[in-house]
Amino acid sequence: IAFDRRELNVILRLYGAKVADGEWRDYALDFGRDKAVFSVFRRASEMPLYRIVKDPALARKQGLYSVVAQGGLILKRGHDLAQVVKVLVKPPRLTAV
């Protein structure tokens, strides 16, 4: 199981924005027989902050994609990757001038 080009474009667009903001610094890709995982790190020596998981076994039940936090909490599941990764995008802050 692996991410295709369209899926990687969605993930890397988000990753690039977070790197530009200084929040994320490193990533890892893991491809196995049963699932593919994109892990995001603040530093390379830490546990991953978030994991974006593609698991075809759950495609008909909860959704093909999921975002998992550091402690194992599933933040969001779904069938559309672009909608699932939106849980990692923070809304812009409004400040008075």
What does this structure look like?
By secondary structure, this protein is an alpha+beta fold. 21% of the residues lie in helices and 28% in strands. It has helices spanning 5-20, 81-84; strands at 26-31, 36-41, 50-54, 65-69, 74-78. A 5-stranded antiparallel sheet has the order 1-2-3-4-5. The mean pLDDT is 88.
Summarize the topology:
Elements (H helix, E strand, L loop, with lengths): L4 H16 L5 E6 L4 E6 L8 E5 L10 E5 L4 E5 L2 H4 L13
Antiparallel strand pairs: 1-2, 2-3, 3-4, 4-5
Class inferred from helices and paired strands: alpha+beta
Assembly type = single chain
Outline type: globular
Please mark out the parts with pLDDT under 50 across 5 or more consecutive residues, or reply none.
Answer: none
Instruction: Report the radius of gyration as a whole number of Å.
Output: 14 Å
